[in-house]
Amino acid sequence: MKIGIVGCAGRMGRMLVQEVLATEGVELSGGTERKGSDAVGRDLGELVGAGAAGVLVGTDPHELFRSSDAVIDFTAPAATVQHAALAADCRCVHVIGTTGLTAEQEQELRDAASRTAIIWAPNMSLGVNILLAAVEQVARALDPDYDIEIVEMHHRHKVDAPSGTALGLGRAAAKGRGVALDEVWCKARDGLTGARPRGEIGFATLRGGDVVGDHTVIFAAEGERVELTHKASSRTVFARGAVRAARWGHGKPPGLYSMRDVLGLE
Length: 266
Prior knowledge:
- With 266 residues, the protein is an alpha/beta fold.
- The protein is built from 10 helices and 12 strands.
- The protein has 2 domains: 147 residues, 3-Layer(aba) Sandwich (Rossmann fold), CATH 3.40.50.720; 107 residues, Dihydrodipicolinate Reductase, domain 2.
- It has a 7-stranded parallel beta sheet, with helices on both faces.
- The radius of gyration is 19 Å and the shape is elongated.
- The protein starts with a strand and ends with a helix.
């Protein structure tokens, strides 16, 4: 199975290249970067310190999608929706870990998924996706007397807040309660906010240092508190999950899938 990486010279891109090179049964088909990048023309294996792989960094995503069975994409929202259209044209599996998409961009992914298999998740970590399933179940079991708060922390360079994973956890909790997240969420509090409304799902965002990703979902009631936590200490967990998703998607019919599908949790 041939797997390509868009944005291959970034921190996550390099992790993905390393994971593909280390995985039996798959072949690194190529990687792309923006024109003008110092990585363009370099050997992908040498780029990540793994020795020559015989594949050079290019600048043409269309060629990459055309020559790959699957392409993994941890880039930026605008680029990701363009890549989704290429994946649909080339009938290539598209694995997306990009966060921060708008509602309109999410719809573009759904449109592209009518023609090819797209696996999109706010977090590719296998552990986080187990957490998502657990949060939904706990929210379903506990009534709104249990206040839900989601706390997340990431490195200082992260540009979107709350994180895509935090929002995914919020959606899981809202689904468990049978409500729409955007009708009950509170993304920030400041000043005299008044008492906390019953049924609200709150978010707290922390940024600093080199934190890869910490997420905690708190169910707080009178007399007790349930906390479900996941902490990532290496981006390797995201790369491992993305490669697993790419292999799972090979041969699947068109559709928009999630890591819960990949793990058999749906």
